[in-house]
Amino acid sequence: MEGVMMDVVLVCLGLVFFRLWWRYWSVTGGGRKNLPPGPPGWPIVGNLIQVILQRRHFIYVVRDLRPKYGPIFTMQMGQRTLIIVTSSDLIHEALVQRGPEFASRPADSPIRLLFSVGKCAINSAEYGPLWRTLRRNLVTELINPARIRQCSWIRNWAIKSHMDRLLKFDGGIVHVMSECRLTICSILICLCFGAKISDEKIKTIESVLKDVMMVTTPKLPDFLPVLTPLFRRQVGEAKELRRRQLECLVPLVRDRKAFVLESDNVEDENVRKIMVSPKGAAYIDSLFELEVPGRGKDGGRRRLEEEELVTLVSEVINAGTDTSATALEWALFHLVMDQKIQEKLYKEIVDCVGTDRSPYTDQQKPQEEVITESDVEKMSYLSAVVKETFRRHPPSHFVLSHAAVKDTELGGYTVPADASVEFYTAWLTEDPEMWEDPGEFRPERFMAGGDGVDVDVTGTKGVKMVPFGAGRRICPAWTLGTLHINLLLARMVHAFKWLPVPDSPPDPTETFAFTVVMKNPLKAIIVPRSSMSSTKI
Ligand code: HEM
């Protein structure tokens, strides 16, 4: 009963607010002037209801609006103003040429703030000292080339387990996405905590973190924060999820800390067994030491707290798992559908590593170092297949939401500092002015003479495809993500021939699940290459 009264009071407050806003709307004709044009909205809710009524994800709504409204347009989503930027020139101007001006992030909803502990994550921090400290630490401790090389044993170990699991599917059906997610997630957990944990625990962490990602994608309360009190159920569910996230990861944080400090806890044989990276080699070891600005008393520096540590490692695991597994699923989709491309790739791999290095010389067990990381660097067709996958199926159709550091202009229009600036980068890769037959999957376009051969995926020289974003906020780990994909793809194609499941061909329909994935996850039949010399497939 008390709850109902509360709702009535909140609805009344909402109505008063709506009345005030309506008056403001009627007087100003929709608010600030010189915003980019956009679809006419309704009073108070703007375009929000129109988008909801379409029952499609926002990325598809924007795709349809682009031809009408062009390179830059506005969508008023409830209280939030979204400036959508779609043209190559404007994206390059904002992200690269005037990078620092557009390098901030917009305000977060209460649910997002819960998971980021008040924007204490690289991806959500505003452009400023906290972001700089966290990002610099990630780059020096996890992504520098020496550290990447030093951790190659982690990839070898995880990919060997991956291949062992696939071998059990011999002639059977592989669920590509779930296998790749498990492997990449185990690599990232080991990089973060220096720990080898059971597949069962990895799966639990992976599933909780996937839920975190889905719950933090923009929803109704994000667009109408004034009504947040009405969304008590959603906030309650988010708090419960945060509790589960902490329950999964805090024990690992504590075990690693005990290991690093050599406290009595490490007498625990189990902790010793799982902590496989030496002290100082795990990402979290650097976070234990890090002093971050702006979080201490009176805005000073202080060490990170346990909840913040959980947020920062979760960010790395989340950012690297879905993106890479999505790319692998789409790449294998095309290899299954087009056996000529698959055979061309297989031939390049065999030409490079030779036939002696068969993955099955060791009593039907894949060897650890069948294809090394320096081998994949030499495989130009592999690189072309992966680039074409990013072009044809960018894991994210927008980069993360950006914000201008102060009111500014772009394309002759005002961009207010409190607007979300959304860069629709997927359009670049579909633009027939930039790509020949953009709908075709054709890795050769990235080989000599092709229309993609000079493409710079970091967007510095110009933006034609930017799967990792560009400028200040570009994905700091794009080389690591690409390495995971190249290595896994090369080893999977070297060891197995990938075939469609008879009577159930792969379906390219897309759906949004933080990244843009296959609606019906890819299933494929695998046949060990070693068995094929005697059996004709
Ligand atoms: C194929 C794999 C990957 C893809 C396609 C990808 C893509 C992206 C994109 C599009 C952004 C947003 C850029 C922007 O807002 O302008 C981003 C940001 C980020 N990514 Fe990645 N990423 C990948 C792998 C990884 C991995 C492996 C990690 C961590 C080890 C990672 C960590 C991050 C972080 C921390 C940010 C936020 C950067 C910031 O706000 O300064 N990503 N990534």
Automatic annotation (TrEMBL):
Q: Name one GO molecular function term.
A: oxidoreductase activity, acting on paired donors, with incorporation or reduction of molecular oxygen, NAD(P)H as one donor, and incorporation of one atom of oxygen
Give a Gene Ontology cellular component term annotated to this protein.
Answer: membrane
Q: Its membrane topology, per UniProt?
A: Single-pass membrane protein
Quote the subcellular location field of this record: Membrane
Superkingdom of the organism of origin: Eukaryota
> Which InterPro entries does the entry mention?
Cyt_P450 (IPR001128), Cyt_P450_CS (IPR017972), Cyt_P450_E_grp-I (IPR002401), Cyt_P450_sf (IPR036396), Plant_metabolite_P450s (IPR051103)
PROSITE patterns per record: CYTOCHROME_P450 (PS00086)
Give the main localization category: membrane
Q: Which UniProt keywords apply?
A: Heme, Iron, Membrane, Metal-binding, Monooxygenase, Oxidoreductase, Transmembrane, Transmembrane helix
Annotated residues that bind heme are located at: C475
Cofactor(s) the record lists: heme
Which PANTHER family does the record cross-reference, listed alphabetically? Answer: CYTOCHROME P450 LIKE PROTEIN, FLAVONOID 3'-MONOOXYGENASE-RELATED
Q: Which family does it belong to?
A: Belongs to the cytochrome P450 family.
Q: Would you tell me the protein name for this molecule? A: Cytochrome P450 77A1-like
